[in-house]
TrEMBL record:
<dbReference type="InterPro" id="IPR050988">
    <property type="entry name" value="Mannitol_DH/Oxidoreductase"/>
</dbReference>
<dbReference type="InterPro" id="IPR008927">
    <property type="entry name" value="6-PGluconate_DH-like_C_sf"/>
</dbReference>
<keyword id="KW-0560">Oxidoreductase</keyword>
<dbReference type="Pfam" id="PF01232">
    <property type="entry name" value="Mannitol_dh"/>
</dbReference>
<dbReference type="InterPro" id="IPR013118">
    <property type="entry name" value="Mannitol_DH_C"/>
</dbReference>
<dbReference type="InterPro" id="IPR036291">
    <property type="entry name" value="NAD(P)-bd_dom_sf"/>
</dbReference>
<dbReference type="InterPro" id="IPR013131">
    <property type="entry name" value="Mannitol_DH_N"/>
</dbReference>
<dbReference type="InterPro" id="IPR000669">
    <property type="entry name" value="Mannitol_DH"/>
</dbReference>
<dbReference type="Pfam" id="PF08125">
    <property type="entry name" value="Mannitol_dh_C"/>
</dbReference>
<feature type="domain" description="Mannitol dehydrogenase C-terminal">
    <location>
        <begin position="294"/>
        <end position="493"/>
    </location>
</feature>
<protein>
    <submittedName>
        <fullName>Mannitol dehydrogenase family protein</fullName>
        <ecNumber>1.1.1.-</ecNumber>
    </submittedName>
</protein>
<dbReference type="InterPro" id="IPR013328">
    <property type="entry name" value="6PGD_dom2"/>
</dbReference>
<dbReference type="GO" id="GO:0016491">
    <property type="term" value="F:oxidoreductase activity"/>
</dbReference>
<feature type="domain" description="Mannitol dehydrogenase N-terminal">
    <location>
        <begin position="30"/>
        <end position="282"/>
    </location>
</feature>
Length: 506
């Protein structure tokens, strides 16, 4: 049995494993991070680790919070918060190359569900200056189509009634900030790093909406003093599996219960508006600070996440379990390539064509990385929360200008077709989505409507019912061009299959 990675085994790691070159015992917590998943541990936590190392500023340790799951806390506590980041890529010889760094910035991990009050206390800790978030799209309790707070969300309803024991992200933030204000402490920065357009602005309006129900003076305090920078983060980080654990343990010579694995590529763009300082994240080329991050967020959501989701849905339907398998299927690759070039790139005004072209090709190379098999299911999950900002916003822009939406609509149809839970080989898969139950009802309503229609009208009727699902589609269900295209792609997928549908649309 191998020894565990921890403060004691740290000095004995092999020389080719990077590790913090600072004295961790002097590190104090300045950041509370909500959602300590692999994504955060592969970017913000490592950039903080490098910034502490480069600047010698020891006041930016991270206190990590998992909202519900105990797994990360249980894995990292015996390791004194230490874990390994493995950056993998295919070498020129075809052999994967892997660079390891043990990250030292996480001081402690807590589970909000076990002790919500302890998390509020930490937000209201005098040394806390940033509260950052990677809680995924569904963690914001917003309606995907509009970005408004969902007052019917059971967690939000619970949190209005239970200020001492909040369980939603928004509730935790508002009650934590209330405590700070009560104690006369300075404001903090709330930094969202999730894949949502204008993620900081959206977080701000959700927090203010909830705060208004609690206390008007608190709302004004947050609005006046706290800041909510928008940010864009780009790094592919598949979930860790046991093969990763075993391989990394062999390299380290000690056991790391939860390393994270990602691609070497990293792009982090943040608006430089921090209420109480920030780590020197720009050190070692990690983060870029800008006045307005929205164009970068839009570029990434449309040109990276949109095609990523498209490949996940089309690929899953063909039985591909990884994104790289889909990206290596010529028909799918050609389709996504055409969709990016002809329908997505033209909506990104003001970016030079050569820059877009390079970005486009880099994305296709990144998802083909043979050293980083990325399960399609991870990208496909939570589609109701992802499809609006990844595909529908682009589609809306094109409808507004009267441009072709054929390929984008096939991508949306692929999502709806995927929701039936069965691939073309007859294998069943689970639909993971916070709206799964409502989506299942929607699908059967659409079938009933189609069956009740004349055969020539069935496809159109089905598409009408599906596109009228407002939480995702907003007003798109009222756009005849969209509904007609959706009807024809859905029919093609049902009758002729993915390959034929994709070839017809490329
Ligand atoms: C992916 C993203 O899981 C998903 O939905 O599309 O996590 C993607 O890998 C990252 O946004 C890349 O930066």
């Amino acid at each position: 049995m191998l020894e565990r990675l921890n403060s004691e085994s740290l000095p004995r790691l092999p020389a080719d494993v990077e590790k913090p070159a600072y004295d961790r015992s002097r590190l104090t917590p300045g950041i509370v991070h909500l959602g300590l998943g692999a994504f955060h541990r592969a970017h913000q936590a490592v950039m903080t680790d490098l910034a502490i190392e480069a600047s010698g500023d020891m006041s930016w340790g991270i206190l990590g919070v998992s909202l519900r799951s105990r797994a990360t806390r249980d894995a990292l506590t015996p390791q004194d918060g230490l874990y390994t980041l493995a950056l993998r890529e295919g070498g020129v010889d075809g052999q994967p190359r892997e660079q390891l760094r043990v990250v030292g910035s996480v001081l402690r991990v807590m589970v909000a569900e076990e002790d919500p009050n302890a998390v509020l206390e930490r937000i209201a800790y005098p040394q806390t200056r940033i509260v950052s978030l990677t809680v995924t799209e569904k963690g914001y309790s917003h309606e995907p189509a509009t970005g408004y707070l969902r007052w019917d969300d059971p967690d939000i309803l619970h949190d209005i009634e239970n200020p001492q024991r909040p369980r939603s992200t928004i509730g935790i933030l508002v009650y934590g900030l209330a405590l700070r204000r009560e104690r006369g402490l300075p404001p903090v920065t709330l930094l969202s790093c999730d894949n949502l357009l204008g993620n900081g602005d959206m977080l701000r309006s959700l927090v203010l909406a909830f705060a208004l129900r609690v206390d008007v003076a608190l709302t004004a305090w947050i609005d006046t003093y706290c800041t909510f920078p928008n940010s864009m983060v780009d790094r592919i980080v598949p979930g860790t599996d046991d093969g990763d654990r075993a391989r990394i343990a062999t390299r380290l010579g000690v056991q790391d219960a939860w390393p994270v694995v990602g691609e070497p590529y990293l792009n982090w763009v943040i608006e430089d508006k921090f209420a109480a300082g920030r780590p020197a994240w720009e050190t070692q080329g990690g983060a870029t600070f800008v006045r307005n991050a929205e164009p970068y967020e839009r570029l990434k959501l449309r040109m990276v996440n949109g095609p990523h989701s498209t490949l996940a849905y089309l690929g899953t339907l063909l039985g591909h379990r990884t994104i790289s398998a889909s990206a290596q299927t010529p028909a799918l690759r050609d389709f996504v390539d055409a969709m990016m070039r002809l329908e997505i790139a033209p909506t990104l005004k003001g970016i030079p064509a050569s820059g877009l072209e390079e970005y486009h090709h880099r994305f296709l190379a990144r998802i083909t990385n043979p050293a980083l098999p990325h399960p399609s299911s991870q990208v496909a999950m939570d589609g109701s929360q992802k499809v609006p900002q990844r595909l529908l916003e682009t589609l809306r822009d094109r409808l507004r200008t009267g441009d072709d939406i054929n390929r984008l609509t096939l991508a949306v149809a692929a999502w709806l077709h995927y929701l039936r839970g069965e691939d073309e080989l007859g294998a069943r898969y689970a639909i993971e989505d916070p709206l799964a139950a409502r989506l299942a009802k929607l699908l059967s309503r659409a079938e009933v409507a189609a069956r009740a229609s004349a055969p020539s009208q069935a496809a159109h009727r089905r598409a009408m019912v599906l596109a009228a699902f407002k939480p995702v589609f907003g007003d798109l269900g009222k756009k005849p061009d969209f509904v007609a295209a959706l009807a024809s792609h859905l029919e093609n997928l049902r009758e002729h299959g993915v390959m034929a549908a994709v070839k017809a649309a490329t």
